[in-house]
Amino acid sequence: MTRARAWTLALSWVYAAAVAVVTVVPAGAHRRHHGRWWWVVEAVPFQVPPVSFALNVVMFMPVGVLVPLLWPRAGRIGTIAALCLAASAAIELTQLALWVTLGNYRTVDVNDLIANTAGGVLGLLVLRVAGGARARATG
């Protein structure tokens, strides 16, 4: 393994842990929640504060950069979009499971799926532009 790949892999693990902390760990348990599980599901797309949407986009941009650096064949828009959608769905389902079991009061939001997927694709596009600029500068 090259040194650059080792650093990229280490950075990926740090990033994944940070995303887990931001999305799952603040799950304060509430013994007596009185709400139904569907009360925390936000199923209407694009009904979200712009800042929240933007932060979710930014949070997933590293996926679009790190994954292709580690696995170049995964550097296609469809692959990154599918990966980000799957990862985002796993986060949202974990949040729902924590609501049902612990009453953590986290919302499960379709807008997070959209924003996170867009963030990963945007990260890939940034990587492609940066890679093209670097090739032009050195070539």
UniProtKB/TrEMBL annotation:
Residue ranges of domain VanZ-like in the record: 13-129
Highest rank taxon of the organism: Bacteria
Keyword Transmembrane helix: yes
One Pfam family it belongs to: VanZ
Keyword Flavoprotein in annotation: no
Keywords: Membrane, Transmembrane, Transmembrane helix
Membrane-spanning segments: 51-71, 78-101, 113-131
InterPro entries to which the protein is assigned, alphabetical: Teicoplanin_resist-assoc, VanZ-like
Name of the protein in its database record: VanZ-like domain-containing protein
